[in-house]
Write a structure and sequence with these properties.
disordered N terminus, mainly alpha, 2 domains, Transcription Regulator spoIIAA, transmembrane helix (chains A, B), about 65% helix, 26 helices, homodimer
């Protein structure tokens, strides 16, 4: 391994010295700006398409394979279980069994509670934890994600659906619309995956999600006060003001102290369990099984004391048996088709964002690759099948996936284990939930969602990026004070506004020479950098496109005006050269070229020469294609700012 | 002027030498990456706001002035006529008079024709050339723009309005809706200006405008075939297929040969005049007065031959007298308020785009500054007043502004001259237009709009930027084959798609050392650049935001995988360092920091060290704020790639 590298290094070393000598002798070697070999149009288009839609090169393993092998690979790509299943062994199964049982014990009480958030009967939550995990286990490629209904999506779906149909008066239609929305959520997810448009979910920024999740958590927790305090007349709105009104209006005769005692006791227990799990990572199973223990204990307690006769609300009835078919219940025509479609897209996108974020997080932790688009197809297929088997939108749950990971899951088989447990529950145990008090479910949900409020992330966001913090707070307050939809809308709008701001108002900087180097840097960052008299060096920090070309031109001219004004004050030499450092300018379009032409003309009128430094491959290509390189003169385009200055300086001296 | 600069240069020279010596002695002087002085939050916010909304620093002249002076300056800012009016003189007036008369002779026949495009009676075109130019002359700051109705906006308005109300059956309501739309177009324009949101119009890319204008020109020309061929039953749709259907269906008995003869004769005359004007710039007045001559000659011809009795359609009636008030005709309530508002916004934005583009073009040619936002306020005010005086949306006309410029206009006073001529026309001459054949108006419009088809620009766009060309053609075919609105929608969508693509899929490049320099550049652009063995140098060519952070991270890891694979094939040394050149990375947000953290962790697992080169002021600030600089180690952040390589290389040797 030794010598080829040494030789290479030696060569570099020589280059180094020859440069130094050259400079010392004041005959700097000026390297020409490279024009990349002309690409043909089709190839260029192909490369762009590839980077946009196949950035992760998913077909890499298919290359140079016989057709039969390609077919096998293709089927394996759709059903990764065929790949990892072949090397599955008992050790892996042990991990998956333990983690599957753990997440099952966590998901059963959560499911019953979350289905309430979606205004559906409790069994629908359990249904959604039976079929979708099986489909995902076959098609998904994340090893750690735990599939099922989640709090935020349940709330969002419930809010959007009850805007259209009353969930109590028209329960059947409401359910049908829920299945329709789930169907289209799945279709939307799968479509994004198939057409490799997965990057669209990146447009919801991390900061906006932190704010949205925090707001949703508070909204969900507030909704639980209904069950927690035993209030009968509760508002249907989700904003904090309506909810607090409901609570205080019913304070005198609407609260039920027995309910509060049960709820508060078990909430304390759950939070304590959470705290123990947090303090000692090995005891992660304590908070994981605490909810199930609470349910068993409280149900037993209500059963023997008959607390339900004292106003403690109980679950009463959960349908026994596994998922019935719901194929014929989906609206494929009429006005509800459109409404279901719209709601499905919103819920599907949020579900996707959550699942992909979870998948990526754990993939990074265990260092395996995750194809976001393939994940989307799996999630979409799972929801489409789910919508036909009485499930509502399922996705990856943050809390359960973390438990899954800590319990040592090895593959997606832990989802199969969980699914089996849910199957057994549905088949045999549901009648036992009859006496489970609603207050316990409320306590379980509250203790689950407080994890979604991520103070540390919010503080970090504030420290790092103020604009992100505005997005975060906007989403948070939008959800808490208005509604989930408005919060989401604010989050998306601010995210987009940020992108637009970025492309409309790129930064520019004045460069100066850092003493004892030939390096030119932003004088704001390096106050010790010296300006070169008679020369203004401006760096444009972005591609120059139609959205910013005018601004860039005018900003450069303003730098010049400012500089000349200051120059006059300081009795300095007049600016004779404007060097534009183009390193960060990755691309220009026709508007950009026009802006440069206008800049050139304006400078000519002022008697200032335009000099360009280090245009990139695409830019130099376009400068030539448009004839701009000829206009300003090929000899005014340099490889580095230092070369450009070396060109300007002698001329300045002559004139001075 | 001599010595301060010389001293400065001498200092630089010394720096130069000390650097060279340092390198030759192999003890390179490594400069630290600067951390800019911490700014306070408020100041930072203020700077961002200023760059976004007051990028042109419009309040510069107000600084440090007494209050009374500020008031005067403020009034002058709103009414620039008070400023330039004080230095107005006879020489300037001579230029303005000649150019004003020239554009008046051009605008009168055009106005009558354009009002037909908007489905309004001929006098409304003339009204719109009387009041708005006066308001603009007082408030506008462009010296060359010629105000009045224009073809594209007339067509757009006509199409959008007739979707709502039938212009023949309900002429009065149609007119009212037109005034309502004009009112809101003005409000929209003025609002954008007042809130300094003028940059929003930059989101319609140059390429999209070229395509849209070309398509609109063809659509308008096709519409003129009705008058040109004397067809009675003509489609109301504007797409090329419907129009050609109409034409060929009526070929047998619907065409009128007398009309065709008149039209064809004068169209030939007009095109000839245009050609003469193009060949000899001094004869610019030939095409400028040709339309009026055609009108006079053809009217006289029809009058003496009574061709109208042989089926030649004539104007018949133009209301005499100046603009009546239309304040009470604007819909301020009901469903038409919303419709008028929507149409007004679309028409207003297109009108604005055209006017600002014209203003900027001529301002660059005469080298004066134009405040886009102030222009918008002027244009908005002019349309609001216009809507109350029976005008429809007016804006700057490309063709008339060019004539105005060539005729030697000096100030906006040429618009006043034109306005006076239109006033006299309205008061005294309109009855004379009775016998003007419609075919002449059609010929005048055809000869005017063919200028909007800019083949050269389209070819240049094709040469420079293929994606821009797609946008251009999309808008063009959308307008020609579907409708103006769809074309516009396509233009805007493609423009946005381009921005989103830009921020989602930034470029990355592998750098190599250019022989005989210490400069590291893209190896695709400089094939002679050498890679440094054991080190992978990647440059990220964009700010790292939530929209691209995942892509950037994964792309870098893919470069590494590719490189390692290739490295293995070549028996080269294993990659031990990943240098990320951050010069073009102007900003990171929280998602970006997360991506870097994930990158760092993935690299650690692979046994590759992460090294950063030249992070900018904002980035280094955030790297510190987030603790990432500590995570990777302060000593892994360098000023230049060369410094970073100097750090990596010795370690590589040791390990080898």
């Amino acid at each position: 391994m030794g010598h080829p590298m040494d030789a290479e290094l030696e060569k570099k070393e020589m280059d180094f010295r020859s440069l130094s000598n050259g400079q010392a002798a004041n005959v700097p070697y000026i390297h020409k700006v490279g024009v990349p070999p002309k690409q043909n149009l089709l190839k260029e288009f192909k490369v762009t398409m590839k980077e946009t839609f196949f950035a992760d090169d998913p077909l890499r393993s298919f290359k140079d394979q016989p057709r039969s092998r390609k077919l096998v690979l293709g089927i394996q790509a759709i059903f990764p279980i065929l790949e990892w299943g072949r090397s599955y062994n008992l050790t892996k199964f042990r991990g998956d069994l333990i983690s599957g049982l753990t997440i099952a014990s966590l998901c059963i009480p959560q499911d019953i509670g979350y289905s309430k958030l979606a205004n559906l009967a409790p069994q629908y939550g359990l249904y959604s934890s039976f079929v979708p995990p099986l489909i995902y286990a076959a098609m998904g490629s994340s090893r750690d994600i735990a599939i099922g209904p989640v709090a935020v999506v349940s709330l969002l779906l419930g809010t959007l659906l009850q805007n259209e149909i009353d969930p109590i008066k028209h329960a059947a239609e409401y359910r049908q619309l829920a299945f329709t929305a789930t169907f289209f959520a799945g279709i939307c997810q799968a479509t994004l995956g198939v057409f490799r448009l997965g990057f669209l979910i990146d447009f919801l920024s991390h900061a906006a999600i932190v704010g949205f999740m925090g707001g949703a958590a508070i909204t969900i927790a507030l909704q639980q006060l209904k069950g927690f305090l035993g209030i009968k007349n509760f508002t249907k709105k989700t904003d904090i003001i309506s909810v607090l009104h409901s609570i205080f209006d019913s304070a005198h005769h609407g609260w039920n102290w027995q309910t509060i005692v049960i709820g508060a006791t078990f909430l304390t227990f759950l939070l304590l369990a959470k705290y123990i799990g947090k303090m000692n990572k090995k005891l992660f199973w304590v908070p994981a099984i605490a909810p199930l223990i609470s349910v068993v204990l409280s149900t037993f307690f209500v059963f023997i004391t008959h607390a339900e006769k004292h106003g403690v609300e109980i679950v009463r009835h959960i349908e026994k048996g596994i998922n019935p078919s719901s194929v014929d219940q989906i609206y494929f025509s009429g006005e509800y088709l459109v409404k279901g479609f719209r709601i499905g897209i919103v819920a599907g996108m949020i579900a996707l964002t959550e699942a992909v974020a979870i998948g990526r997080t754990f993939a990074t932790m265990k260092d395996y690759q995750l194809d976001g688009n393939k994940e989307m197809v799996a999630l979409g297929a799972m929801n489409v099948v789910g919508s036909m088997t009485s499930c509502y939108v399922a996705t990856g749950s943050f809390s359960r996936s973390a438990v899954n990971y800590m319990a040592g899951c090895q593959t997606a088989a832990s989802n199969i284990v969980m699914s089996c447990v849910v199957f057994l529950t549905l088949q045999f145990i549901t009648p036992l939930f009859k006496y489970t008090p609603n207050a316990i479910l409320a306590a379980i949900i509250i203790s689950a969602v407080i994890n979604l409020i991520d103070f540390e992330a919010a503080i970090l966001i504030f420290k790092i990026d103020k604009f992100d913090f505005v997005a975060c707070m906007g989403a948070f307050f939008g959800v808490v004070f208005v509604s989930v939809e408005i919060g989401l809308l604010i989050a998306v709008s601010i995210s987009f506004a940020k992108i637009l701001l970025q492309v409309t108002r790129p930064r520019t900087a004045i460069l100066g020479k850092i003493p004892r180097t030939t390096v030119y840097r932003n004088i704001r960052q390096y106050p010790e950098a010296n300006r070169v008299p008679g020369v203004l060096i401006v760096r444009i920090d972005s591609a120059v496109y139609f959205s910013n070309s005018n601004y860039v031109k005018e900003r450069i001219l303003r730098w010049l005006t400012d500089e000349e004004k200051q120059g006059n004050d300081d009795y300095q030499t007049k600016i004779q050269f404007l060097v534009v450092e183009m390193s960060p300018v990755t691309d220009v379009d026709t508007s950009g070229i026009h802006a440069f032409e206008e800049l050139y003309r304006s400078l000519q009128k002022k008697g200032v020469q335009l000099v360009l430094a280090n245009p990139g491959p695409v830019v130099i290509d376009k400068l030539h294609a448009s004839g701009f390189a000829n206009l300003i003169g090929e000899d005014k385009i340099f490889l580095t700012v230092a070369d450009a200055i070396a060109f300007c300086s002698p001329k300045l001296v002559e004139e001075a």
